[in-house]
Amino acid sequence: MAASALLTGAPWLRMRLLPDAPARPFRHLHLRRALSVRASAGADGSSGPVRVRFAPSPTGNLHVGGARTALFNYLFARSKGGRFVLRVEDTDLERSTRKSEEAVLADLAWLGLEWDEGPDVGGEFGPYRQSERNSLYKQYAEKLLDSGAVYRCFCSSEELEQMKEVAKQRQLPPVYMGKWASASDAEVQQELEKGTPYTYRFRVPKEGSLKINDLIRGEVSWNLDTLGDFVIMRSNGQPVYNFCVTVDDATMQISHVIRAEEHLPNTLRQALIYKALGFSMPSFAHVSLILAPDRSKLSKRHGATSVGQYKEMGYLPQAMVNYLALLGWGDGTENEFFTIDDLVQKFTINRVNKSGAVFDATKLKWMNGQHLRSFPHDELIKAFEDRWKNTGILQESESGFAQEAAELLKDGIDLITDADAALTNLLSYPLHTTLSSEEAKPVVQDKISEVALSLISAYDSGELTQALAEGRDGWQKWVKGFGKSIKRKGKGLFMPLRVLLTGKLHGPDMGGSLALIHKAGICGAVTPQSNFVTLDERFRILKEVDWESLGKEQETPAESAVPAAS
């Protein structure tokens, strides 16, 4: 292990090295002297085989913060040629479920974070569920009891609450002040014979400090006088989180603990347990929290927060991995597009920022679009085609309509699920809504009725239909001649045409759009579910528009207030 530690002044630390030490001979250890612990490591803590772990609790869905922690562990392991271990922390028996565990593992697999050891693949340091390691925790708890590093505490809940209240009144940290740290063997034996429930409580030196060289945060220190003796085994025989984690990390030979900054305070207790058991300390790296736009901790009230939710919304695993990596890390360049292989090659722990990173859903969606459009062309087109057929917008057809639609719309789609709205929007014709909108007022007031009359004439003569049958080239040739015939060009020509033919003010390339709309009416690929409005129906609607009334409705208040000339 890369970490080194210096400890002085703790009697149990010296005496645990004696062979065949008698059980619990340390009833006078309440006269504890100061303890000093210092752990340090190189720039990235690397020294020997790299083994990291991600240890989720299966009490819910995989949060994006947990996914980023897993990703950083994965990238660090792969970049160092090390091992990525998955360990399930399921000691919360009331909340942990196997269904949740399966969901978490499925989300990690979807992200492409393959683990080398875990509950489903095994490994030489298993089992990999904490609930299956209880005998190991009890073994090490007894070892600490025999060495005098822990003691039995028979305090009732009422007594402990009273201690907290006294500490609060004295404005002191809520540390343990009970008698069992210094109780005699006879007093302990008396309670055992009575069957009084007890916990295992760890002896913490009254004075001293702990300092670690966090690979992200630099030197972090704590004073031991704020801690007090803490419980490692509950009265029901269940181990406490900090004890489990320490035993697991040590016995699984974890070299680097990369985890959320929420766990930073736990390091003090865990370091004391490491030293009491004679284990080498791993290197620690505490990653900043992911923040909401208001810089509070990201939570459900801010919208989707779990990997599963983003998966269901149509996000790509490649985009999620890329975006999560950039929440607190960068390669020192302006590049923001990374594949997972790129990240493995470029990731270093010393480039992880200790400041909180803000989760920007808009940026994630943009990045998803970048990854979507990076797919091989044929693969991307087929993804859209399959999506439209699966959702019932299109049906099987040899016309090539789906491929042409995907080609036209792909640059405006960031999520595969958005492809549905993009296509149905293209096929729709909300003319009346658009004409009555404030945004359309300049177009309507620019004598749109004159363009409409000429356009209807061109459609009734068949020349527009013939042009659209020839595709974009036919459209471009026709619209050029049409503009000359009505003496319009540029926006003065194309804005009213877009409104009259598509029913909208904005959209993809108009020539491509109209060629597709024409094709949709004759190819049989479009289903009734798409709410498609044919060209015939569009022109029927156009012929029914009362342009005179519409013009009056769109007059500005100043215009309508002008009196008629006498």
Automatic annotation (TrEMBL):
Molecular function (Gene Ontology), one example: glutamate-tRNA ligase activity
EC code(s) of this entry: 6.1.1.17
Broadest EC class assigned to this enzyme: ligase
Alphabetical UniProt keywords: Aminoacyl-tRNA synthetase, ATP-binding, Chloroplast, Ligase, Mitochondrion, Nucleotide-binding, Plastid, Protein biosynthesis, Transit peptide
InterPro entries: aa-tRNA-synth_I_cd-bd (IPR045462), aa-tRNA-synth_I_codon-bd_sub2 (IPR020751), aa-tRNA-synth_I_CS (IPR001412), aa_tRNA-synth_I_cd-bd_sf (IPR008925), Glu-tRNA-ligase_bac/mito (IPR004527), Glu/Gln-tRNA-synth (IPR000924), Glu/Gln-tRNA-synth_Ib_cat-dom (IPR020058), GluQ/Sye (IPR049940)
GO BP annotations, alphabetical order: glutamyl-tRNA aminoacylation; post-embryonic development; reproductive structure development
All residue ranges annotated as the Glutamyl/glutaminyl-tRNA synthetase class Ib catalytic domain in the record: 50-366
Aminoacyl-tRNA synthetase class I anticodon-binding domain sequence ranges: 397-518
UniProt GO cellular component terms: chloroplast; mitochondrion
Subcellular location: Mitochondrion; Plastid, Chloroplast
Superkingdom of source: Eukaryota
Chief localisation class: mitochondrion
Catalytically driven reaction(s): tRNA(Glu) + L-glutamate + ATP = L-glutamyl-tRNA(Glu) + AMP + diphosphate
HAMAP family, A to Z: Glu_tRNA_synth_type1 (MF_00022)
Family affiliation: Belongs to the class-I aminoacyl-tRNA synthetase family. Glutamate--tRNA ligase type 1 subfamily.
Known function: Catalyzes the attachment of glutamate to tRNA(Glu) in a two-step reaction: glutamate is first activated by ATP to form Glu-AMP and then transferred to the acceptor end of tRNA(Glu).
Protein's name according to its UniProt entry: Glutamate--tRNA ligase, chloroplastic/mitochondrial
